[in-house]
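Why show two proteins at once? Because comparison is the fastest way to build intuition. When a single record is shown, students tend to memorize it. When two are placed side by side, the eye starts asking what differs. So, the first record is below.
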Amino acid sequence: MGISYVEFEDEAGVLRRYRKHVNGRGLVATTAKVDPTAFVDPTAYVDPGAEVQRGAQISHGAWIDRDAIVAERAVVGVNVHVGRRAVVGRNAVIGPYASVGNDARVQNGARVPREMTVAEGDEYRASGDDLRRLGLAA
């Protein structure tokens, strides 16, 4: 059985090709890099140039925009939008219905609360509780 593709026209009228990810069957652009151990829900999208690293989880309805990075073991919650060129750090958790703006950064281990918006270009830092949860703080 061969690889099947789905094609969409983007906002600039360019036809983009997506394939179903092996773990979860979510749609991944052919120019995106998604590790085989990452989970991409069948209703989630990973756009061109984006990267989803080892063990990351992309939940129902989530959208990883162009050139964004979701690092190892990060969790992107239900209906989350990770903006263009944004970075979600290792072990970070983005709560349901939250959004991470273009060029924003979520530090390793940080937990972004439900429905919160990390503004474009901002950096969301991990709290002491976040770091203790990971065994990184005294």
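Second record. Ask yourself what differs from the first in the token line.
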Amino acid sequence: MSENITGVATTPQADGPPAAAAGIEGREFNALEWLADRGIFAFTTVLVLLAALFVDGFASLDNITDVFNRAAPIGIVAVGMTFVVISANYLDLSVVAQVATAAVVLIGVSNEVNLPAAIGLAFVIALVYGLVNGLAVGVFKANAVIVTLATTFIGLGLLRWASGGSIYFGPEDSLIRSFGTTEIGPFPLSMIALVVIAFALNFVLHRTTFGFMVKSFGSNPKATRLAGVNTAWVVIGAFILSGLGAMVGGFVLAAFSNTAVSSMSTGFDFEALAAIIVGGTSVFGGRGSVLRTLLGVIFVSVLTNIMVLSGLGFGYQQMAIGALIVLAVSIDALARKAVSS
């Protein structure tokens, strides 16, 4: 790209904001910066190797397939939400309502009408969520946490009213169920879909004008506005991508369980955010990578699986993931302070 949006870079970078994406090249090595930018690669590799060697049952084909199945819907939500986080301190808590709505619409409407109608309706709903969140945050400058928390409550309320709180079951011979049960070796189709979507969105983030604008706005909002960029549309676009990711994540979740209910996506916001932050995307905006989010998903999923196999309860899992988030955010903050000093 020839134009200079932020005043510090002229081409999209492979990782991070235009100014910082050059990594540690050209300046003294900084361990904190390396941990924030590249640590997830080493940590994920070490964790998987240790689990395979020392945790009974981890390396079995059934367990690996189960890890992939459970990681896929959260991962798809996380790679879509990555754009919102990179666009500068924004979070999309409404993915909880969006995932559940997509799942209920997919099974409920496909049972009553047909599958194309269900997919079409879910797509429209995802666009509405993205537009509402994006307009409120990008145009009216409302706080993203408050806005998306409000749309979560509104969305879940509407879903429970429309569905009556019912549990929807899909036919065993349906195309939806086939997608949820088909495997290629140890890899379920849902995990393959996650990898394909992650690489596609990684291309969007690092090789398109829109992706460059997202990183530029997250890195330096004022300079991006002064350069004439319609930053409201950047924010709206990020929330729409998050909504579409939540929609597909809901589809995958429904296909895996062959059921749908309004409460099925509880905790998806926290788990997706954990994968994003642990993957190295900065909560301060401007720096991040979809592929690193994918590694964050694998890391968090493997860690959770290790604790399950070790007999540790859900409370321990929550504490471990919470501690990971605090550690990752602290490293990111310290790394930024070290670079700026």
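One difference worth noting in the second protein: The two ends are 30 Å apart (CA to CA).
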